[in-house]
Amino acid sequence: MSLNTYNIAIHGGAGTILRSEITHETEALYKQALTEAIQKGEAILKKRGTAIDAVQEAVVSLENCPLFNAGKGAVFTHEETHELDASIMRGDNLMAGAVAGVKKVKNPIVLARKVMENTEHVLLCGDGAQKFAQLSGVEIESESYFYNELRHKQWQKAIAHDRIALDHDITLDDKKFGTVGAVALDFHGNLAAATSTGGLTNKKFGRVGDSPIIGAGTYANNAQCAVSCTGHGEYFIKAVVAYDVYCLMEYRQLSLKEACHLVVHDKLVKIGGEGGLIAVDKNGAICLSFNSEGMYRASVGLTQDLHVAIYNDTK
Ligand code: ASP
To answer: What is the full DSSP assignment across the chain?
Structure first.
Protein backbone atom coordinates (compact mmCIF):
# COMPACT_ATOMS: atom_id res chain seq x y z
CA MET A 1 0.00 0.00 0.00
CA SER A 2 1.27 3.44 -0.83
CA LEU A 3 0.26 6.48 1.20
CA ASN A 4 0.54 10.14 0.42
CA THR A 5 2.11 10.93 3.70
CA TYR A 6 4.93 10.18 6.10
CA ASN A 7 5.37 10.76 9.81
CA ILE A 8 8.12 10.33 12.35
CA ALA A 9 8.31 10.75 16.14
CA ILE A 10 11.25 10.38 18.51
CA HIS A 11 11.80 10.37 22.27
CA GLY A 12 14.83 10.98 24.43
CA GLY A 13 13.46 9.45 27.63
CA ALA A 14 10.79 10.19 30.21
CA GLY A 15 10.98 10.91 33.91
CA THR A 16 11.08 13.64 36.51
CA ILE A 17 11.90 16.43 34.12
CA LEU A 18 10.77 19.71 35.62
CA ARG A 19 10.86 23.12 33.96
CA SER A 20 12.05 24.63 37.23
CA GLU A 21 15.09 22.34 37.26
CA ILE A 22 16.40 22.94 33.75
CA THR A 23 18.17 26.08 32.57
CA HIS A 24 17.23 27.76 29.29
CA GLU A 25 20.63 26.83 27.88
CA THR A 26 20.23 23.16 28.73
CA GLU A 27 16.70 23.14 27.39
CA ALA A 28 17.97 24.63 24.13
CA LEU A 29 20.64 21.93 23.86
CA TYR A 30 18.03 19.18 24.25
CA LYS A 31 15.71 20.75 21.74
CA GLN A 32 18.52 21.16 19.26
CA ALA A 33 19.58 17.52 19.65
CA LEU A 34 15.99 16.33 19.22
CA THR A 35 15.51 18.56 16.18
CA GLU A 36 18.70 17.33 14.54
CA ALA A 37 17.78 13.70 15.12
CA ILE A 38 14.25 13.96 13.80
CA GLN A 39 15.36 15.94 10.79
CA LYS A 40 17.85 13.21 9.90
CA GLY A 41 15.06 10.67 10.02
CA GLU A 42 12.67 12.92 8.15
CA ALA A 43 15.19 13.53 5.35
CA ILE A 44 15.06 9.81 4.58
CA LEU A 45 11.26 9.70 4.56
CA LYS A 46 11.04 12.82 2.37
CA LYS A 47 13.16 11.12 -0.29
CA ARG A 48 10.72 8.19 -0.22
CA GLY A 49 13.16 6.15 1.85
CA THR A 50 12.03 3.47 4.27
CA ALA A 51 10.66 3.79 7.79
CA ILE A 52 13.25 1.31 9.06
CA ASP A 53 16.12 3.46 7.73
CA ALA A 54 14.50 6.58 9.15
CA VAL A 55 14.11 5.21 12.69
CA GLN A 56 17.65 3.84 12.65
CA GLU A 57 19.09 7.16 11.47
CA ALA A 58 17.21 9.14 14.12
CA VAL A 59 18.28 6.75 16.89
CA VAL A 60 21.92 6.76 15.76
CA SER A 61 21.88 10.55 16.02
CA LEU A 62 20.51 10.35 19.59
CA GLU A 63 22.97 7.57 20.50
CA ASN A 64 25.85 9.81 19.40
CA CYS A 65 24.65 12.65 21.61
CA PRO A 66 25.94 12.61 25.22
CA LEU A 67 22.72 14.18 26.52
CA PHE A 68 20.74 10.94 26.27
CA ASN A 69 21.00 7.58 28.02
CA ALA A 70 21.96 5.52 24.98
CA GLY A 71 25.22 4.93 23.13
CA LYS A 72 27.68 7.67 24.11
CA GLY A 73 25.58 8.98 26.99
CA ALA A 74 24.73 5.59 28.53
CA VAL A 75 24.48 5.37 32.33
CA PHE A 76 26.91 3.39 34.47
CA THR A 77 26.18 -0.12 35.71
CA HIS A 78 26.97 -1.20 39.28
CA GLU A 79 30.35 -2.44 38.03
CA GLU A 80 31.11 1.03 36.62
CA THR A 81 30.79 -0.16 33.03
CA HIS A 82 28.14 0.39 30.35
CA GLU A 83 25.77 -2.32 29.17
CA LEU A 84 23.73 -1.28 26.18
CA ASP A 85 20.36 -2.60 25.00
CA ALA A 86 18.58 -1.90 21.71
CA SER A 87 15.90 -3.25 19.42
CA ILE A 88 14.45 -2.51 16.01
CA MET A 89 11.39 -3.85 14.19
CA ARG A 90 9.73 -3.46 10.80
CA GLY A 91 5.98 -3.50 10.49
CA ASP A 92 5.68 -4.97 7.00
CA ASN A 93 7.09 -8.42 7.74
CA LEU A 94 7.53 -8.35 11.54
CA MET A 95 11.27 -8.81 11.20
CA ALA A 96 12.99 -7.75 14.39
CA GLY A 97 16.47 -7.62 15.90
CA ALA A 98 17.73 -6.84 19.37
CA VAL A 99 20.83 -6.85 21.55
CA ALA A 100 21.13 -6.79 25.33
CA GLY A 101 24.10 -6.10 27.57
CA VAL A 102 26.61 -5.25 24.86
CA LYS A 103 29.67 -3.21 25.76
CA LYS A 104 31.60 -0.52 23.88
CA VAL A 105 29.37 -0.73 20.80
CA LYS A 106 29.09 2.81 19.47
CA ASN A 107 25.62 2.34 17.98
CA PRO A 108 23.72 -0.60 19.49
CA ILE A 109 20.79 0.09 17.16
CA VAL A 110 23.01 -0.67 14.15
CA LEU A 111 23.96 -3.96 15.79
CA ALA A 112 20.29 -4.76 16.46
CA ARG A 113 19.58 -4.13 12.76
CA LYS A 114 22.36 -6.57 11.86
CA VAL A 115 20.81 -9.20 14.14
CA MET A 116 17.54 -8.64 12.27
CA GLU A 117 19.06 -8.85 8.80
CA ASN A 118 22.07 -11.13 9.11
CA THR A 119 20.95 -13.82 11.57
CA GLU A 120 17.96 -16.07 12.01
CA HIS A 121 17.57 -14.82 15.58
CA VAL A 122 15.79 -11.90 17.21
CA LEU A 123 17.67 -11.24 20.45
CA LEU A 124 21.36 -11.73 21.23
CA CYS A 125 22.75 -10.99 24.67
CA GLY A 126 25.97 -10.73 26.69
CA ASP A 127 29.18 -12.40 25.48
CA GLY A 128 27.53 -13.90 22.41
CA ALA A 129 26.18 -10.53 21.32
CA GLN A 130 29.62 -9.06 21.91
CA LYS A 131 31.21 -11.69 19.70
CA PHE A 132 28.60 -10.98 17.03
CA ALA A 133 29.39 -7.26 17.30
CA GLN A 134 33.05 -7.94 16.63
CA LEU A 135 32.31 -10.24 13.69
CA SER A 136 29.73 -7.97 12.12
CA GLY A 137 32.13 -5.05 11.91
CA VAL A 138 30.12 -2.43 13.81
CA GLU A 139 32.09 0.41 15.36
CA ILE A 140 33.58 -0.44 18.77
CA GLU A 141 34.73 2.39 21.03
CA SER A 142 37.05 2.50 24.05
CA GLU A 143 35.55 2.75 27.58
CA SER A 144 36.61 6.40 27.68
CA TYR A 145 34.25 7.26 24.79
CA PHE A 146 31.33 6.47 27.12
CA TYR A 147 32.77 8.31 30.15
CA ASN A 148 30.73 11.28 31.24
CA GLU A 149 31.32 13.21 34.44
CA LEU A 150 27.66 13.84 35.20
CA ARG A 151 26.83 10.23 34.60
CA HIS A 152 29.63 9.18 36.88
CA LYS A 153 28.26 11.42 39.64
CA GLN A 154 24.82 9.88 39.22
CA TRP A 155 26.39 6.48 39.56
CA GLN A 156 28.32 7.44 42.70
CA LYS A 157 25.10 8.72 44.23
CA ALA A 158 23.19 5.59 43.26
CA ILE A 159 25.92 3.41 44.72
CA ALA A 160 25.92 5.44 47.95
CA HIS A 161 22.16 4.96 48.25
CA ASP A 162 22.41 1.34 47.10
CA ARG A 163 19.62 1.76 44.60
CA ILE A 164 18.98 1.66 40.91
CA ALA A 165 17.68 4.75 39.20
CA LEU A 166 15.59 5.75 36.26
CA ASP A 167 17.71 8.08 34.17
CA HIS A 168 15.59 11.10 35.12
CA ASP A 169 15.17 10.40 38.81
CA ILE A 170 15.47 13.85 40.31
CA THR A 171 16.63 12.67 43.72
CA LEU A 172 19.75 11.40 42.04
CA ASP A 173 20.17 14.48 39.84
CA ASP A 174 19.60 12.19 36.88
CA LYS A 175 17.17 14.37 35.07
CA LYS A 176 19.48 15.17 32.21
CA PHE A 177 19.45 11.86 30.41
CA GLY A 178 17.10 9.48 28.67
CA THR A 179 16.60 6.31 26.69
CA VAL A 180 15.98 7.06 23.03
CA GLY A 181 13.53 5.79 20.44
CA ALA A 182 11.89 6.48 17.10
CA VAL A 183 8.77 5.40 15.22
CA ALA A 184 7.94 6.16 11.60
CA LEU A 185 5.49 5.66 8.77
CA ASP A 186 6.91 5.94 5.24
CA PHE A 187 5.37 6.82 1.87
CA HIS A 188 5.09 3.09 1.11
CA GLY A 189 2.76 2.57 4.08
CA ASN A 190 5.37 0.76 6.14
CA LEU A 191 5.82 1.27 9.87
CA ALA A 192 8.98 0.77 11.95
CA ALA A 193 10.13 1.26 15.53
CA ALA A 194 13.53 1.43 17.25
CA THR A 195 14.66 1.88 20.87
CA SER A 196 18.12 2.14 22.46
CA THR A 197 19.24 2.55 26.07
CA GLY A 198 21.91 2.25 28.70
CA GLY A 199 19.19 1.03 31.08
CA LEU A 200 19.09 2.05 34.72
CA THR A 201 21.97 3.62 36.67
CA ASN A 202 23.63 1.11 39.00
CA LYS A 203 21.88 -1.89 37.40
CA LYS A 204 23.34 -5.24 38.52
CA PHE A 205 23.49 -8.93 37.61
CA GLY A 206 23.04 -8.42 33.87
CA ARG A 207 19.70 -6.65 34.38
CA VAL A 208 17.86 -6.09 31.10
CA GLY A 209 14.90 -3.74 30.78
CA ASP A 210 12.10 -3.43 28.25
CA SER A 211 14.02 -1.64 25.51
CA PRO A 212 15.42 -4.74 23.75
CA ILE A 213 12.29 -6.82 24.38
CA ILE A 214 10.08 -6.96 21.31
CA GLY A 215 6.51 -6.34 22.44
CA ALA A 216 7.53 -4.60 25.66
CA GLY A 217 9.72 -1.63 24.67
CA THR A 218 9.40 -1.83 20.90
CA TYR A 219 6.79 -3.09 18.46
CA ALA A 220 5.77 -2.44 14.84
CA ASN A 221 3.04 -4.02 12.76
CA ASN A 222 1.68 -2.46 9.56
CA ALA A 223 -1.79 -3.70 10.54
CA GLN A 224 -1.96 -0.97 13.21
CA CYS A 225 0.99 0.92 14.66
CA ALA A 226 4.63 1.28 15.67
CA VAL A 227 5.57 1.96 19.30
CA SER A 228 8.76 2.81 21.22
CA CYS A 229 8.72 3.08 25.03
CA THR A 230 10.73 4.71 27.78
CA GLY A 231 10.37 4.39 31.52
CA HIS A 232 10.86 1.91 34.34
CA GLY A 233 11.48 -1.17 32.22
CA GLU A 234 10.36 -3.81 34.70
CA TYR A 235 6.79 -2.45 34.59
CA PHE A 236 6.86 -2.07 30.82
CA ILE A 237 7.83 -5.73 30.51
CA LYS A 238 5.07 -6.85 32.88
CA ALA A 239 2.49 -4.77 31.03
CA VAL A 240 3.87 -5.79 27.58
CA VAL A 241 3.30 -2.15 26.75
CA ALA A 242 4.15 -1.78 23.06
CA TYR A 243 2.24 -4.90 22.03
CA ASP A 244 -0.67 -3.97 24.27
CA VAL A 245 -1.14 -0.70 22.36
CA TYR A 246 -1.21 -2.72 19.13
CA CYS A 247 -3.64 -5.29 20.59
CA LEU A 248 -6.07 -2.67 21.86
CA MET A 249 -6.24 -1.27 18.33
CA GLU A 250 -6.36 -4.62 16.57
CA TYR A 251 -8.80 -6.49 18.80
CA ARG A 252 -10.78 -3.74 20.50
CA GLN A 253 -10.75 -1.26 17.63
CA LEU A 254 -9.47 1.56 19.81
CA SER A 255 -7.90 4.56 18.10
CA LEU A 256 -4.16 5.11 18.57
CA LYS A 257 -4.87 7.89 21.03
CA GLU A 258 -7.32 5.81 23.06
CA ALA A 259 -5.02 2.79 23.13
CA CYS A 260 -1.98 4.82 24.25
CA HIS A 261 -4.03 6.64 26.85
CA LEU A 262 -5.42 3.45 28.34
CA VAL A 263 -1.99 1.82 28.56
CA VAL A 264 0.01 4.81 29.82
CA HIS A 265 -2.50 6.58 32.07
CA ASP A 266 -4.47 3.64 33.37
CA LYS A 267 -2.86 0.22 33.06
CA LEU A 268 0.72 1.34 33.79
CA VAL A 269 -0.31 3.72 36.56
CA LYS A 270 -2.25 0.95 38.32
CA ILE A 271 0.90 -1.19 38.59
CA GLY A 272 3.20 1.74 39.42
CA GLY A 273 4.91 1.99 36.03
CA GLU A 274 6.34 5.42 35.34
CA GLY A 275 7.22 6.48 31.81
CA GLY A 276 5.81 7.01 28.38
CA LEU A 277 5.83 6.07 24.73
CA ILE A 278 5.73 7.40 21.22
CA ALA A 279 3.53 5.78 18.58
CA VAL A 280 2.45 6.27 14.99
CA ASP A 281 -0.40 4.42 13.31
CA LYS A 282 -0.89 3.15 9.77
CA ASN A 283 -2.75 6.34 8.80
CA GLY A 284 -0.07 8.63 10.15
CA ALA A 285 -1.65 9.63 13.45
CA ILE A 286 0.98 10.30 16.10
CA CYS A 287 0.71 9.92 19.87
CA LEU A 288 3.31 11.07 22.42
CA SER A 289 2.03 9.89 25.77
CA PHE A 290 3.62 9.86 29.25
CA ASN A 291 2.58 9.66 32.89
CA SER A 292 5.81 11.18 34.24
CA GLU A 293 6.61 14.87 34.68
CA GLY A 294 8.15 15.09 31.26
CA MET A 295 9.39 13.28 28.17
CA TYR A 296 11.93 14.57 25.67
CA ARG A 297 10.05 14.24 22.41
CA ALA A 298 9.59 15.47 18.86
CA SER A 299 7.38 14.71 15.89
CA VAL A 300 7.01 15.87 12.31
CA GLY A 301 5.20 14.75 9.17
CA LEU A 302 4.48 15.72 5.60
CA THR A 303 1.41 17.61 6.74
CA GLN A 304 2.47 18.20 10.33
CA ASP A 305 4.81 20.93 11.51
CA LEU A 306 7.83 20.08 13.63
CA HIS A 307 6.86 19.77 17.29
CA VAL A 308 9.59 19.56 19.94
CA ALA A 309 8.68 19.42 23.63
CA ILE A 310 10.00 18.37 27.03
CA TYR A 311 7.49 19.06 29.79
CA ASN A 312 3.90 18.15 30.43
CA ASP A 313 2.24 21.07 28.66
CA THR A 314 -1.20 20.25 30.01
CA LYS A 315 -0.17 21.12 33.57
N1 ASP B 1 13.21 1.62 29.78
C2 ASP B 1 14.60 1.70 30.10
C3 ASP B 1 14.98 0.50 30.93
O4 ASP B 1 14.24 0.15 31.85
C5 ASP B 1 14.99 2.93 30.83
C6 ASP B 1 14.46 4.24 30.26
O7 ASP B 1 13.55 4.23 29.45
O8 ASP B 1 14.97 5.30 30.65
O9 ASP B 1 16.02 -0.06 30.72
So the answer is: ---S--EEEEEEEEE---GGGS-HHHHHHHHHHHHHHHHHHHHHHHTT--HHHHHHHHHHHHHTSTTSSSGGGPPP-TTSS--EEEEEEETTT--EEEEEEE-SBS-HHHHHHHHHHHSS-SEEEHHHHHHHHHHHT--B--GGGG--HHHHHHHHHHHHTT--B-TT-GGGT-TT---EEEEEE-TTS-EEEEEEE--SBT--TT---STTSBTTTEEEETTTEEEEEEE-HHHHHHTTHHHHHHHHHHHH---HHHHHHHIIIIIHHHHT--EEEEEEETT--EEEEESSSEEEEEEEETTEEEEEEEE-TT-
